[in-house]
C-alpha cells in the first residue's frame, strides 16, 4: 500500500511550500483544486498549476463544478492523473476520452454519500477509484467509517482497479484500509499541518513496512 501526500491550499504559495517540503520524501503527490461552488472551500486558481516548478509528479483531485473547462486550461508535464466527481457538471465518458487524448488517465472520485449503483457502470471506464472517507473540501474533517463497506464491495467487483482512500487516514486506522485491499491512501493534515512533514510521512511508511515484514515471514 502506498502513501500519497495530499496538498490542499487556499494560496498557491502555500501549495508550493508543501510541494517543496514533499520533495525530500516522495516523488508523487495529490493536489486538491476547489472552486468554492462544488465544495464550500476555495483553493488557488487551477491555472496556477502551470507555474509549479517542484520535482514531484502529481495527480489533481478536481473538487470543482466544471472539471472539463478547468482541465482545458491546465498543462503541466508532471501531471499524471485527473480525478473528477460524478456529481460535477461533466459528461463522464467525454471527459475520460479527452484526458486519454492528452495522455492523462482519468480517475473517479466517490463521495461518502455516493452509492455503488451510481458509479458502478462508469467505473468500467477508469483505472482509479478515489473514495472520500470524509466530507470533501477541508483538511482534518472527521473520518466516515461507513465508507469502508463500500470500498470492500467495490474491491470485490473490480479486483483490477486502483483503489485509493482520501481523508481521515491516520496511523490508528491505517491497517483497516490495507485489510480491505486499498492500494493507496492520501494523507493531508496528518503529514503537513503538525510537526515535520517528512517525519510524519515516515511514520506511515514504517507502519506499512512492519506489516509487510510480518506477512513475508
Helix content: 25-40%
CATH topology: TIM Barrel
**CATH class categorisation:** Alpha Beta
Based on Cα principal axes, name the global outline.
globular
Low-confidence runs: none
The main sheet comes to: 8 strands, parallel, barrel
Classified in CATH, the superfamily is Aldolase class I
Radius of gyration based on Cα positions: 16 Å
Structural class of the helices, strands and pairings?
alpha/beta
Number of helices: 8
Beta-strand residue percentage = 15-25%
Mean pLDDT: 94
Could you say what the CATH architecture is? Alpha-Beta Barrel
Number of domains: 1
How many beta-strand elements? 8
Strand order of the largest sheet: 1-2-3-4-5-6-7-8
Q: Could you tell me how far the N terminus lies from the C terminus, measured between alpha carbons in angstroms?
A: 18 Å
Order of helices and strands: EHEEHEHEHEHEHEHH
Please sum up the structure shown:
By secondary structure, the protein is an alpha/beta fold. It has helices at 12-22, 67-71, 92-101, 116-119, 147-157, 174-179, 189-192, 197-215; strands at 2-7, 28-34, 57-63, 79-85, 106-110, 128-132, 162-166, 184-187.
Structure description:
There is one protein chain. The protein is α/β, with parallel strands linked by helices and 217 residues long. The protein has a single domain (2-215), classed as TIM Barrel (Alpha-Beta Barrel). It has an 8-stranded parallel beta barrel with strand order 1-2-3-4-5-6-7-8, surrounded by 4 helices. Helix content is 32%, strand content 21%. Helix 5 links the parallel strand 6 (128-132) and strand 7 (162-166). The radius of gyration is 16 Å and the shape is globular.
